[in-house]
Known about the structure:
single chain, Purple Acid Phosphatase, chain A, domain 2, 3 domains, seven-stranded mixed beta sheet, six-stranded mixed beta sheet
Amino acid sequence: xxxxxxxxxxxxxxxxxxxxxxxxxxxxxxxxxxxxxxxxxxxxxxxxxxxxxxxxxxxxxxxxxxxxxxxxxxxxxxxxxxxxxxxxxxxxxxxxxxxxxxxxxxxxxxxxxxxxxxxxxxxxxxxxxxxxxxxxxxxxxxxxxxxxxxxxxxxxxxxxxxxxxxxxxxxxxxxxxxxxxxxxxxxxxxxxxxxxxxxxxxxxxxxxxxxxxxxxxxxxxxxxxxxxxxxxxxxxxxxxxxxxxxxxxxxxxxxxxxxxxxxxxxxxxxxxxxxxxxxxxxxxxxxxxxxxxxxxxxxxxxxxxxxxxxxxxxxxxxxxxxxxxxxxxxxxxxxxxxxxxxxxxxxxxxxxxxxxxxxxxxxxxxxxxxxxxxxxxxxxxxxxxxxxxxxxxxxxxxxxxxxxxxxxxxxxxxxxxxxxxxxxxxxxxxxxxxxxxxxxxxxxxxxxxxxxxxxxxxxxxxxxxxxxxxxxxxxxxx
Length: 478
Ligand SMILES: [Fe+2]
Ligand SMILES: [Fe+2]
């Protein structure tokens, strides 16, 4: 029966992964069930997984057999917090033309693989094949490429120069196609669907496909009772650090941690104000030595109950290389902090009580607000959606986000997180995107003279809580 059902579904165009197959075969009428349920999946995946099925039917958590897998030596953890991926101690950077070429190849290969998993990119061919004079008669072609250049013509069309490992092509977006008004970023990896024009071998675009994240119902309820608190941009050392409101927050945690089961805190960057980050910064510093700033932060964090695990990530003000991905703070700095504090890189994937958290400081907001129409510093959650659609934390190279050409592209969002947290813009907010909890964590710094000059009003002194069992989010204001 197994092969009959699987074969019939394959003929319908549905491929199943093993878990999905087992689940379907366990139903009383597997084929009928599958044909009824799979078409309801909003985002039609190339290979249907159990996660996809969960978006449309109830799938009880399988009884997991205990498989003891040895942890790789590089796994760092503190209690239930585990670093799944970051650059710390993994750097393999080659700062040369060759190194950049290698980096972009890795980025392209990763994002192409994500695009190929989409049903609507099934049958994608290389640029070389699409440009083949004998192929030009084909009705429709699908191609995946990295954007080399984008320009808008005076008559309202958009021209995209696309590149893959076999060649380059020009994609013409007619002005009546909605993509003509869309923001396509340099270096993002996209799928294009359209017809080749015989005359000039340009692809006339019909659809633009981004890798995106599959729609899911989000965090299924587990029996965890713990909560994780998210706070960012402490900026200790600055004369605008809101010490009073910080102390109110810490006192609240001391009172509430037990009742609310607050067991974890994640700080996504700009832990201290740093030195020499912007011109004349010393005039705004109350602690002029960066190590002293970290010492002061370590003192402030001592007021938080010892059984709360604290995860510290660097940002663009911290004492690590500014180029992303950034490694964790050095041993010299880490030593200043208590043993309940874990230093991680930026970005980083964390696993806490079974939940996947992607934490990224958010320096690339500076480029995204310039590159994508309709985005602004006051709406960072929208910018986070744009990252997820492109499955990349910093899609464009050459702007304000410095990056290191590592062998692997750590900025690719290869795994879909349950929770995605950023800081950097000193705003505060929560929302959802395709079932993922998006959090822009608030700051503990008041408006700076720079922000005043640019008419930017921060939203400081808020603490976001996420319940790891139910996924419920709440914001406490201090
Ligand atoms: Fe900041
Ligand atoms: Fe920042």
